[in-house]
Amino acid sequence: MTCSTYPPGVSSIVSRPSVYLALLLPLIIAACGPGERDASWRGDAPKAPADAAADAGYLKPPILTASRPEPGGAILLIGEAQPGAAVRLGSPTGEALTTTASAAGVWTARLAPSADLRLFGLSMSAEKNRQVQSPGYLAILPDGRAAQLRAGVSAYLYGAGSDAPRLLTIDFDRDGAASVSGAARAGSGLSLRIDRTARGVGKTDSLGRFHLAVEKPLNAGALSFEIAGDSGEQTVVVPVSAAPELSGPFRAVRAGNAWRIDWPAPGGGVQSTLILDPVP
User: Fold this and answer.
1) d(Cα 75, Cα 144) in Å, to the nearest integer?
2) 58, 156, 201, 241: least buried by Cβ within 10 Å?
3) Any idea what the Cα angle at residue 8 is, between residues 92 and 177, rounded to 5°?
């Protein structure tokens, strides 16, 4: 089904492989087949960043474990990689940072202050210069928060625990297929309503994180998302619309109470990710 209320022409995206090549390469590595991607939107996807060690052979890909703002607006990134590996953060806009993992397998990198949301592919070179790419992309927000974008499933926002139910990210494609992620009390049951209509149920994992697929495609408009569980409830209103034609490798803009990222999906088309603002 297609979001019939999308503005005319918005749902028609022209593929530009030469423009998007830099962005797509890391995503292709982690891309699922058609059946697996459909399963992701149904809610069968992992609740946290997947361990792609199987895809990388015997070397586990580098990962981000934390991010935090520093005085002056700089952002410190902390992660794990093969001990002694050369770690690279590369953006499709051309920005790149390199660092080396310690003997304990810990790497750090410091980003300069920026008012813009930035995307980075994360990779490492280890053991006879073997290149290992982490799946998806890291989205680094100006306030220091970080999220992993995941094809066909809602993004994972790092370090955002909560006892009360909190929606953290919402993802959807041009056909309205969608999923949400968030945090709540560990092991608690959850229900999702959109514009007062039940659209999904689930449960948090042992870390208090959840991923819920949205039943039925989303319509366009200002939609009210209500997440309710054993420890409370939350309602947020967010604007939903089909992604416009991209004029660059990705598009990141403010959209109401969220950052919106439109980026090319490995299977074609454009996936839109909303990273909601923190609750005061």
Assistant:
1) 6
2) 58
3) 60
Whole-number Å distance between alpha carbons of 94 and 97: 10
pLDDT of 92 > 50? The answer is yes
Confidence of residue 265 (pLDDT cuts 50, 70, 90): confident
CA-to-CA dists, residue 277 to 1, 143, 167, angstroms:
29, 10, 10
The 10s digit of each residue's pLDDT in 225-240 is: 999 999 999 999 999 9
The rounded mean pLDDT for the chain is: 84
Distance from C-alpha of 264 to C-alpha of 19, rounded to nearest angstrom: 11
pTM score over 0.85: no
